[in-house]
Description:
The protein is mostly helical. It has helices at residues 22-45, 56-80, 96-99, 107-134; strands at 2-5, 8-11, 16-18, 81-83. It has a two-stranded antiparallel ribbon with strand order 1-2. Strands 3-4 form a two-stranded antiparallel ribbon.
Amino acid sequence: VGSWVAGALVAxxxxxxxxxxxxSALLASGGLSxxxxxxxxxxxxxxxxxxxxNDPGTMKRRFCSTLSTCVFxxxxxxxxxEPAPSGExxxxxxxxxxxxxxxxxxxxxxxxxxxxLTMALFLGPLVQHLLEYSQGRARLVT
Length: 142
């Protein structure tokens, strides 16, 4: 069993590991974030106009930017992953899917954490809108 990584067949028996320093990991995640934002703004440089964020063309371009950044992140992960030494299997060795965050172990807890975070992020605007409604400056539902 093997997988192609950066042009070479890598054995998958022991799994893969990422050996990055904390500074390298932060730099990589910051670089991917910057790449995503830049990919959104490159459309303007190419001459496309963002008239309305709900315009079908704008949504398609944003989808293409998101997809290309996600594919780049996956390729970067595959290039940075190394085969785990045979004596270092066990907990540290992961499959590519697990390195990408795709796993069934702890899926319920992960989903619950994502839902809780999303609710916390939307709580501020909801409270602000309810305060404006209570002061008569906004309608409850528009």
